[in-house]
Amino acid sequence: MIDLPMVSPRHNEPMGDDERQLAVGFGFCHNEINTLARQVVVASSQVGALASLLAERGLLTQEELDARQGAELKRLKSELDREDFGVAVTTEFPDKYTISSDKLPEIDCEARLPLCRAACCSMRFALSTQDLDEGVVRWEYGQPYLIRHNPEMGRCVHQDPDTFHCGVYEKRPGVCRVYDCRKDARVWVDFEKRIINPDLFVTMSNGRLRPQFPKRDDKSAPAPVAESAAS
After folding, report:
1. What is the distance between the alpha carbons of residues 17 and 43, in angstroms, rounded to a whole number?
2. Do residues 117 and 153 touch, judged by C-beta distance below 8 A?
3. Which DSSP symbol is given to 227?
4. How far apart are CA 141 and CA 18, in angstroms?
5. How far apart are CA 94 and CA 118, in angstroms?
6. Quick check: 215 and 123 in contact, CB under 8 A?
7. Tens digits of per-residue pLDDT, 150-199?
8. In Å, how far are 65, 86, 144 from 28, measured between CA atoms?
């Protein structure tokens, strides 16, 4: 067990960003654990009572129950893979440094920054275990393991708000590497003619522009990467 030094905060000292993120994250986890525990107890009691009742009436054998349980477990696992349950970790890019060149779009991003303002940096997506192990790309403690956003900017915390450059470019996630905006109608009306979507941005209360990308839970929204929704 690791012995961590305990430092008491100064009187009335506000929490820093990391401490606030941790507090939100722990709150999220504890709430989810409590909710899940209650649901498991209720579900277990119902299933146990039903199985016992059917067995007593000779309508169900243990062998039949085991077989049906296996099939149902497989179905539920498939549902969990598609829905937004628990933590989110992408497995699409086990090694972002070895993504084949045919999946890396050739886009003149630097020349287009004045137009698109790197709008793709406002997308929400899950990191990979490789990202987490490296400990460079930050994730939302309150919504593990989504890329962390600056709440005042509505963009990735690693993006420079003035130049729109990525501060962790060499370590950027696989999703960022393969995202192709060329056919994304949310960004370009005409990519070749450099005509930006006039409805792409909204003005925030701080005066900055924020891209209007669909929320992560919008199932009808087009995927932020070419092959998957990278949730």
Report:
1. 38
2. no
3. S
4. 9
5. 25
6. no
7. 888 888 999 998 899 999 999 999 999 999 999 899 999 999 999 999 99
8. 35, 10, 9
CA pair distance 90, 95, nearest whole angstrom: 11
Residues 85-111 pLDDT 10s: 567 888 899 999 999 999 999 999 999
Nearby residues of 216 by Cβ (< 8 Å), 6 or more positions away: 84, 124, 125, 146, 231
- The answer to whether 216 and 146 have CB atoms below 8 angstroms apart is yes
Residue 17 carries which side chain, given as an amino acid letter?
A: D
Side chain identity at residue 86, one-letter code: G
Instruction: Specify the pTM.
Output: 0.61
pLDDT of residue 181: 93
In this structure, are residues 176 and 166 in contact, taking their beta carbons and an 8 Å threshold?
yes
Segment (H or E) for 209: strand 209-211
What whole-number distance in Å separates Cα of residue 228 and Cα of residue 89? 13
Cα(69)–Cα(65) distance, integer angstroms: 6
Q: Which residues pair with 196 in a beta bridge?
A: 188
* Phi and psi torsions of 159, nearest 5°: -90, 135
